[in-house]
């Protein structure tokens, strides 16, 4: 029997954090197109209202910097079959001036929240015995030291490490866990960091494909890792970087 690849996720529920903007928004749209029921989680109600009007997705407003709010929101979303931990923040500070407050804020959203949300989802997946798939949205910053990004790079390296442990422990339950690791992707976050040509020029010069990533390109890679085409892919960090890390 042939399956309709365009509706690959029909009958599946996917929770997407950070779905209000950028990569999370593109992922929520793509997963809706491919048949999934999307639960979109973000801190901005206005963003989620717009997405809901467009796609009919379910929405949850929560601040993932708050551990208790994160746990409550993750439980509210259950049961889900698939999870995309996409919410993330960046703040630029030289290493010598990186404050404890900045470090803690970035680690809370980029790593701790991903763990809390994944725990709730994995518990539900295990109790239903149907397996599942989780994608954590990391970055090339997990592997490459980028000036002014000390806390951010640390958070993404931690997310990759967390992902490997999750892949090992949850794999036995049929739950696959992977990361996508994009280079600069044209989203509101990237505008904050890379809008000045003095910064974007040298970065672009290091990308063999000579352009930045579109959010939809990351979304399609996420969909690959969530779907049956990647059924034996578990515990990998998959670069979406036009060859940046190969150089
Ligand atoms: P973005 O800033 O454009 O969107 C981030 C989304 O996450 C927004 O909807 C925002 O409301 C939500 N969010 C942020 N903090 C939150 C919080 N405390 N609680 C709830 N929601 C919160 O970012 P983006 O560029 O789409 O990035 C998405 C992910 O991709 C992040 O994890 C980021 O680190 C990663 N990434 C981005 C790039 C890039 O160049 N844009 C490159 C590599 C990796």
Structure explained in plain terms:
By secondary structure, this protein is of the alpha/beta class. It is 46% helix and 15% strand. It has one domain: NAD(P)-binding Rossmann-like Domain (Rossmann fold). The protein has helices at residues 22-33, 45-55, 67-77, 100-128, 150-171, 188-194, 197-205, 215-226; strands at 13-17, 37-42, 58-61, 82-85, 132-137, 175-182, 237-240. Strands 3-2-1-4-5-6-7 form a seven-stranded parallel sheet, sandwiched between helices. Helix 1 (22-33) links the parallel strand 1 (13-17) and strand 2. Helix 3 (67-77) packs parallel to helix 4 (100-128) and helix 4 (100-128) runs parallel beside helix 5. The termini are far apart. Nicotinamide-adenine-dinucleotide is lined by residues 18, 20-24, 42-44, 47, 63-65, 86-89, 109, 137, 139, 182, 184-185, 187-190.
In helices, the fraction of residues equals 40-55%
What small ligands are held by the chains?
Answer: nicotinamide-adenine-dinucleotide
Largest sheet descriptor? 7 strands, parallel
Mean pLDDT: 96
Instruction: Provide the number of structural domains.
Output: 1
State the name of the first-level CATH class.
Alpha Beta
CATH topology term:
Rossmann fold
Topology pattern, helix = H, strand = E: EHEHEHEHEHEHHHE
Structural class: alpha/beta
Question: How many DSSP E strands?
Answer: 7
What is the CATH superfamily classification? NAD(P)-binding Rossmann-like Domain
User: Which descriptor suits the 3D outline?
Assistant: globular
Q: Stretches where pLDDT falls below 50 for ≥5 residues? A: none
> Roughly how many Å apart are the termini?
43 Å
Record the strand order, biggest sheet: 3-2-1-4-5-6-7
Beta-strand proportion: 5-15%
């Amino acid at each position: 029997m042939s399956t309709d690849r365009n509706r690959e996720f029909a009958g599946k529920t996917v929770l997407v954090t950070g779905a209000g903007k950028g990569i999370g928004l593109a992922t929520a749209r793509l997963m809706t197109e491919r048949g999934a029921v999307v639960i979109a989680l973000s801190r901005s109600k206005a963003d989620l209202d717009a997405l809901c009007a467009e796609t009919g997705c379910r929405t949850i407003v929560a601040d993932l910097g708050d551990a208790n709010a994160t746990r409550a929101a993750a439980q509210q979303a259950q049961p889900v079959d698939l999870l995309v931990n996409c919410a993330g923040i960046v703040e630029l500070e030289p290493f010598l001036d990186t404050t404890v407050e900045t470090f803690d804020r970035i680690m809370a959203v980029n790593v701790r929240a991903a763990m809390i949300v994944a725990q709730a989802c994995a518990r539900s997946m295990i109790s239903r015995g149907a397996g599942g798939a989780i994608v954590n949205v990391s970055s090339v910053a997990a592997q490459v030291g980028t000036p002014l990004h000390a806390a951010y790079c640390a958070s993404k390296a931690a997310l990759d490490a967390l992902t490997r442990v999750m892949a090992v422990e949850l794999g036995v339950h049929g739950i696959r866990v992977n990361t996508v690791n994009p280079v600069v992707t044209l989203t509101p976050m990237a505008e904050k960091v890379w809008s000045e040509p003095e910064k974007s020029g040298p970065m672009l010069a290091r990308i063999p494909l000579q352009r930045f990533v579109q959010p939809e390109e990351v979304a399609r890679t996420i969909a690959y890792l969530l779907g049956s085409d990647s059924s034996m892919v578990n515990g990998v960090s998959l670069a979406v970087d036009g060859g940046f890390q190969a150089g």
